[in-house]
Specification:
9 helices; 7-stranded antiparallel beta sheet; alpha+beta
Length: 374
């Protein structure tokens, strides 16, 4: 172990609402979404901090050397907060899932605590971890008397005696507070609200919409599986090879929830084919998952949609393929495409039905339920 005698910066961004988010909603999707946000917080560091630990809903940073001034800390908070909420806005625009976790992302918020003090680094299997009373103070300050859930709190220790000369950012006044911590005494702090920064976060562009055919290829059937579980079966790439038997290999990022713009690659008959997730409006009460092949050699604007609606105690699944014929003389390829997919779509629908209702249906349903339910 070793002491860092000079005061070190301790900086903790904390995702507010995390506990309720994972307890009351679907765990698997919530876990992936939170992981993305934690990675984004780490990537937003512009102070050269060291990642000490991931603490479930928070990121614990520290930095040796001079403590950044208040303006610099505010700039860091602004950068992290802006990236956090820009990501949430984009996720809201691109999500295809209506589960509790995905539908609750917009309720998450971010607060940050900055403190300073001498720390001890202890080594655990080669991992350096800050330790000491000021580490305790920094964490205790996450539970304070600030009524809002989105703010930057900076202790007097981190301000270094410059409390009277602080310049407030244009979007929030500087407020003052204190917290009495048992055995450690009173800790004074200043804080600014971060919520007003949301006004400066631009709206992401809407998802791309593909033209719909007058005569789409389509097939539908009833499936004895609840709509949420059926939608998970067709949209979750972890479950894809249970029913898509034409795929020899599937390449994708397993730690991300599928959304508009997600790309995955299928190896089919030795060919590597790129797919991009899309969606569209097929009416109220429908869950829609779509896939687009950017470079389809036969047609343009190819999009295959899996449309799930509630029907009795189960669901109705309809698969629709929309496309646009290429300009002459390649128009003839559209006929070949229609012939091939006209035979493929019934096979896909039957394979999904067999997976949902056949001999392995119980295992598939359990896996789908595990992925979406708390």
């Amino acid at each position: 172990m070793r002491w860092i005698l000079a005061p070190s910066l301790l900086f903790i961004p904390d995702i507010s609402g995390f506990t309720k988010f994972v307890n009351d909603t679907e765990v698997a999707h919530g876990r992936h979404v939170i992981a993305e946000l934690l990675e984004l917080i780490i990537e937003s560091d512009q102070l050269g901090m060291t990642l000490a630990e991931l603490e479930g809903d928070a990121v614990f940073f520290y930095r040796d050397g001079p403590i950044p001034d208040f303006k610099t800390l505010v700039g860091q908070a602004q950068r992290t907060f802006g990236a956090f909420h820009a990501h949430i806005k984009e996720y809201e625009t691109k999500r295809i899932c209506d589960c509790g976790a995905c539908g609750s992302v917009h309720r998450l918020s971010l607060k940050m605590v900055a403190h300073a003090g001498p720390i001890e680094l202890i080594s655990v299997r080669g991992f350096q971890k800050p330790y000491g009373s000021d580490v305790i103070v920094a964490h205790r300050l996450l539970k304070n008397d600030v009524e809002d859930s989105e703010y930057l709190l900076v202790t007097e220790s981190a301000l270094g005696g410059a409390e009277e000369d602080l310049e407030a950012p244009a979007w929030s006044p500087i407020r003052q507070g204190a917290l009495t911590i048992e055995d450690l005494g009173e800790v004074g702090y200043r804080y600014v609200m971060l919520g007003p920064l949301k006004e400066f976060i631009p709206e992401p562009p809407p998802p791309r919409s593909f033209p719909k055919s007058d005569r789409p290829l389509q097939r539908e059937t009833h499936i004895d599986l609840p709509p949420a579980e059926l939608f998970e079966l067709v949209s979750n790439l972890d479950l894809r090879r249970r029913w898509n038997h034409d795929v020899d290999d599937l390449r994708y990022e397993p730690r991300r929830v599928n959304r508009v713009g997600t790309k995955h690659f299928c190896v089919i008959g030795g060919d590597l084919i790129e797919f991009e997730t899309v969606t569209d409006d097929f009416g109220e009460g429908r869950r829609v998952y779509g896939e687009h092949i950017p470079d389809n050699p036969f047609v343009d604007d190819f999009a295959c949609y899996y449309i799930v609606t509630s029907e009795g105690e189960g669901s109705r699944l309809r698969v629709e393929v929309h496309y646009r014929a290429k300009p002459f003389p390649r128009t003839v390829l559209a006929w070949l495409f229609r012939f091939r997919f006209g035979r493929l779509i019934p096979r896909i629908v039957e394979a999904i039905k067999e997976t949902a209702e056949g001999p392995e249906a119980e295992a598939t349903a359990s896996r789908a339920a595990e992925l979406i339910e708390a």
